[in-house]
């Protein structure tokens, strides 16, 4: 027989373990939920393997057994599921495979958020060390003869040895419970404690959980039960079981589709985004069941990519049990389910928006950015999505919908005024481009998400004709003035045309390769200058984003607007006319300033700083 071999936990796993042991996580009960959940997964996996390979032994009596010994202070959770090989023991229990572990550990260093994060991360097996000072795992993998024993005291190392053969494949986890000195600490070898934890967290597990020769869970699939019978608490506990999220879900959505395709669904919208929502755009969280039998989790074909934040269960009556991931996407029933689920999600979100604005804002803050991707991906529903979108505006600090904005639009306003191009609201609010619109009393939507800009650029192609147009006010071709006002302004500008000519020539001489035009302007009220996008052009931020993504957009030429009623520009007009040698030095300042307001760094940052220094010295005196 193989002798005992000693291993060390992978450093991240060891760190996590240490945290578990020292953790003051208030709800230690969850370790049992995690063990039962692992046992249940193992039984699911064995069933699926047996479906694929008829050589493998069918599970005669699948079950999860619980045993406790209050003398010896042990608690045992045993399953006859798929089991683990020696390598799998090392891979699954000795290391953490989950992506994002590093981020998790970094975040968890902060004591304040630690407790919450441990729960959120669903660290499963390791949570046993909250209550045990030694853990033994005896396991035999389906289709193999060898049985292995894994043992650890949670001290950074573990041992693996060959063990006496288990009669059947599966896994037995034995916890040696810690002596509890803490006041009010629970005794986890106590029968009633065990029963109540299982009753609370694991009642709906679809395999029997047997304790003292009786099955103690109802095994009733919560999504099959009538809504009126289920308490809010049960929904929440089921959600937590499903997602490992420690927080309550924001809302749940029940689906009961009957007709040509019959299926039931129980979906949840989490209250906050998981940290990998953007890093892992493909991750989806719908589990597929067929007639109450678990088939697969993470079934991406059941939900649109931009709804990937939705978690839950879909249970179909019409699909064959042996369906595989590969054929799933071509399955017409799946398409029907997907469409009807999507419709239901839209309808529920609409209801939430109408009935509980506060909750809806939470949803939007967590998932709005993902949801909006749908405008580009799903032209059929682009309008639905936009109607559900929330925006910030120049009016106040509240969120607004497009419909609400439209109800406040001025008569004759050509469309929905939008400004994008910066990542934060305060930068957008400070943009000189807003000046003419604010002066004329128009409300402008402030769009800070990168995806907003894509939507804005493409909106005329993707949005249906019956929707109000989104108008990008960064564009040189958009104005807040009426035709009459424009005419009057143009006349005023014409009068000063000849005066403006030398300054324009100077500006083109200096910045010509970056500019499409230099225009005298009466659009600005307080700023001397402003860089606007040429009609149909893209913002500086967008240009930079495309470059960062490895694309090569042609360099965008912009329009430099100079506010001829501003004292600095007035002075510049004079200097240029007199061919003053300092014209260039002075003109560079407002140009660089308008670049900075676009979020860019002036090409010659050192020169810019020096010019400001010189100006300050001049202004402050010696
Ligand atoms: P998670 O369950 O979130 O993946 P865990 O730490 O609970 O994380 O478990 C790690 C892995 O160990 C599981 O994904 C599974 O592959 C394996 N495992 C744990 N418990 C069992 C079990 N009872 N039977 C078979 N495999 C198991």
Structure description:
The structure is a single chain. The protein has 622 residues and is an alpha+beta fold. The chain has four domains: 5-215, 2-Layer Sandwich (Heat Shock Protein 90); 222-357, Ribosomal Protein S5, domain 2, CATH 3.30.230; 388-472, Rossmann fold; 483-538 and 547-619, Four Helix Bundle (Hemerythrin (Met), subunit A). The protein has 21 helices and 22 strands. The strands form four sheets. It has a nine-stranded mixed beta sheet with strand order 1-6-5-4-7-3-2-8-9, with helices on one face. A five-stranded mixed beta sheet has the order 10-11-14-12-13, with helices on both faces. A five-stranded mixed beta sheet has the order 16-15-18-17-19. Helix 9 packs antiparallel against helix 10, helix 10 (357-377) packs antiparallel against helix 11 (382-388) and helix 17 (497-511) crosses helix 19 (567-577). The N and C termini lie far apart (90 Å). 36% of the residues are buried. The mean pLDDT is 89. Bound molecules: adenosine-5'-diphosphate. Residues 34, 38-39, 42, 79, 81-84, 92-93, 122, 124-126, 171 line the site of adenosine-5'-diphosphate (ADP).
C-alpha geometry: elongated
Sheet with most strands: strand arrangement: 1-6-5-4-7-3-2-8-9
Ligand inventory reads:
adenosine-5'-diphosphate
Name of the CATH first level of the largest domain? Alpha Beta
Main sheet, how many strands, which sense, barrel? 9 strands, mixed
Q: What's the CATH superfamily of the largest domain, by name?
A: Histidine kinase-like ATPase, C-terminal domain
- Share of helix, binned: 40-55%
The Rg value, from CA coordinates, equals 32 Å
What class would the helix/strand composition place it in?
alpha+beta
Separation of the first and last Cα atoms: 90 Å
**Mean of the pLDDT scores?**
89
The CATH architecture category of the largest domain equals 2-Layer Sandwich
Number of domains in the coordinates?
4
Annotation field: number of helices = 21
Q: Into which percentage range does the β-strand content fall?
A: 15-25%
Unreliable stretches covering 5 or more consecutive residues: none
Tell how many strands the DSSP assignment holds: 22
CATH topology of the largest domain: Heat Shock Protein 90
């Amino acid at each position: 027989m193989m002798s005992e071999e000693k291993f060390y936990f992978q450093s991240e796993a060891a760190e996590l373990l240490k945290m578990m042991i020292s953790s003051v996580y208030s709800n230690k009960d969850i370790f049992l939920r995690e063990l039962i959940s692992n046992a249940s997964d193992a039984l699911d996996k064995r069933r699926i393997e047996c479906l694929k390979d008829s050589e493998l032994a069918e599970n005669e009596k699948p079950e999860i057994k619980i045993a406790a010994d209050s003398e010896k202070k042990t608690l045992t959770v045993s399953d006859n599921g798929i089991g683990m090989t020696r390598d799998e023991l090392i891979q699954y229990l000795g290391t953490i495979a989950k992506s994002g572990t590093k981020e998790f550990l970094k975040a968890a260093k902060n004591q304040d958020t630690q407790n919450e994060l441990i729960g959120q991360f669903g660290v499963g097996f390791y949570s046993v060390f909250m209550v045990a000072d030694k853990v033994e795992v005896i396991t035999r993998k389906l289709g193999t003869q060898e049985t292995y024993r894994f043992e650890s005291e949670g001290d950074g190392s573990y041992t693996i040895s060959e063990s006496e053969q288990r009669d059947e494949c599966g896994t037995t986890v034995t916890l040696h419970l810690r002596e509890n000195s803490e006041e009010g600490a629970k005794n986890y070898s106590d029968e009633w404690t065990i029963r109540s934890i299982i009753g609370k967290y694991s009642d709906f597990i679809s395999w029997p959980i047997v304790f003292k020769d009786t099955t103690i869970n109802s095994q009733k699939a919560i999504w099959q039960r009538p809504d009126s019978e289920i308490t809010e608490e049960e929904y929440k506990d089921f959600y937590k079981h499903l997602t490992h999220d420690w927080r309550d879900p924001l809302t749940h959505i029940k689906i009961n589709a009957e007709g040509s395709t019959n299926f039931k669904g129980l979906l949840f919208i989490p209250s906050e985004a998981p940290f990998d929502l953007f890093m892992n755009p493909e991750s989806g969280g719908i589990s597929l069941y067929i007639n109450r039998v678990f088939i697969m989790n993470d079934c991406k074909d059941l939900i649109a990519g931009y709804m990937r934040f939705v978690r839950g269960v879909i249970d179909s009556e019409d699909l064959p049990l042996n369906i595989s991931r590969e054929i799933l996407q071509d399955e017409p029933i799946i398409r029907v389910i997907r469409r009807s689920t999507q419709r239901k999600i839209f309808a529920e979100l609409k209801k939430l928006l109408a009935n509980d604005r506060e909750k809806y804002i939470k949803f939007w803050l967590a998932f709005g950015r993902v949801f909006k991707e749908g405008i580009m991906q799903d032209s059929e529903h682009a309008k639905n999505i936009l109607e559900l979108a929330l925006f910030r505006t120049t009016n106040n600090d509240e969120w607004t919908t497009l419909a609400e904005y439209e109800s406040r639009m001025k008569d004759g306003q050509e469309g929905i005024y939008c400004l994008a191009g910066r990542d934060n609201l305060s930068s957008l609010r400070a943009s000189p481009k807003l000046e003419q619109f604010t002066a004329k009393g128009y409300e402008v939507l402030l769009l800070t998400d990168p995806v907003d800009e894509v939507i804005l650029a493409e909106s005329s192609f993707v949005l249906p004709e019956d929707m109000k147009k989104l108008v990008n006010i960064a564009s040189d071709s958009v104005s807040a003035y009426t035709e009459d006002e424009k005419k009057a302004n143009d006349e005023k500008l014409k009068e000063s045309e000849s005066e403006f000519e030398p300054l324009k020539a100077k500006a083109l001489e200096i910045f010509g390769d970056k500019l499409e035009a230099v225009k005298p302007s009466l659009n600005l009220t307080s700023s001397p200058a402003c860089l606007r996008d040429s009609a149909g052009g893209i913002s500086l931020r967008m240009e930079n984003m495309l470059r960062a993504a490895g694309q090569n957009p042609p360099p965008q030429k912009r329009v430099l607007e100079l506010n001829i009623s501003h004292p600095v520009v007035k002075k510049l007009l004079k200097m240029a006319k007199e061919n003053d040698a300092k014209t260039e030095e002075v003109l560079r300042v407002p140009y660089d300033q308008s670049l900075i307001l676009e979020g860019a760094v002036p090409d010659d940052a050192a020169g810019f700083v020096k010019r400001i220094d010189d100006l300050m010295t001049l202004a402050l005196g010696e």
